Amino acid sequence: MTWFAEIDTAIRDFVAWASALDPWLCVLAVLIVLSLETSLFVGLLVPGEAALLLAVGVLGARWALPLFGVAVLANLIGQTGGYWLGRTLGPGLRRTWAGRKIGERRWAAAEAIVHGSGGRALITTRFVAVVHAVVPAVVGTLRMPFRRFLLLAAVGAALWAAVLTTAAVALGEAARVVGYGWMALLLTCVGGGGAGVVLFRAARRRRTS
Q1: What percentage of residues in the chain have a pLDDT greater than 90?
Q2: Cα–Cα distance for residue pair 56/133, rounded to 1 Å
Q3: Which residues form the VTT domain (predicted)?
């Protein structure tokens, strides 16, 4: 399979190129990307998980701890911005141009989660795409005490960063053993399967509603 070997070679070349960069530049890039990813509006577009996985995979296990710390810090920066925006503007935030761009469905989903689980939503929704960027603003509009918000957000950020960095180290080491091409194929299959399940469930909900 020539194409498969080409994919493996291309990934190895990229890893070799990225590994030659100053590691602290990669750490800074992760800080910036994750701060944006957890912010209210940019968080709908920026792939934070991919940035952290890629950085740990390229830099290796010895950089896992610094990247873990940076991931926690970046999460707190982005979520704190959303919290204060929500606390300052209140429910009127949803009626702003940017609030309308987020969409009523996302606001409603975030509010339902917060009302259903309280402050725990700051922990559990960190693992949920898109919604995690909206929840801090919703919590801010409800005027949760800042200290409580910061504690819960820190717990959620630490759990999320621990899971992602551990997975990235494991995947990076496995890729070096079995080959980057095989690992890319595995991740593509897993991602495609997950997307298929989500689409299937969404289609079923439409048929039953």
Answers
A1: 10
A2: 23
A3: 47-167
More confident residue, 148 or 94: 148
State mean pLDDT over 136-155.
87
pLDDT of residue 154: 93
CA angle 122, 127, 14 (to 5 degrees): 135
**Tokens standing for residue 128:** 């949920």
Closest CA to 139 of 114, 164, 161: 114
Kindly list the distances between the CA atom of residue 190 and the CA atoms of 83, 130, 179, 186, 197, in Å, as whole numbers in the listed order.
34, 20, 17, 6, 11
Phi, psi of 178 (to 5 degrees): -90, -15
pTM over 0.90: no
Q: CA geometry: angle at 179 spanning 174 and 182, to 5°?
A: 95
The H-assigned helical ranges of 38-145 are 48-59, 64-89, 97-102, 104-117, 121-124, 131-141
Taking only the tens place, the pLDDT of each residue in 154-174 is: 999 999 999 988 888 887 777
Cα–Cα distances in angstroms (integers) from residue 172 to residues 22, 54, 176, in the given order: 19, 9, 6
Residue with the bigger pLDDT between 209 and 143: it is 143
Separation in Å, CA 127 to CA 11, 23, 28, 96: 27, 27, 22, 27
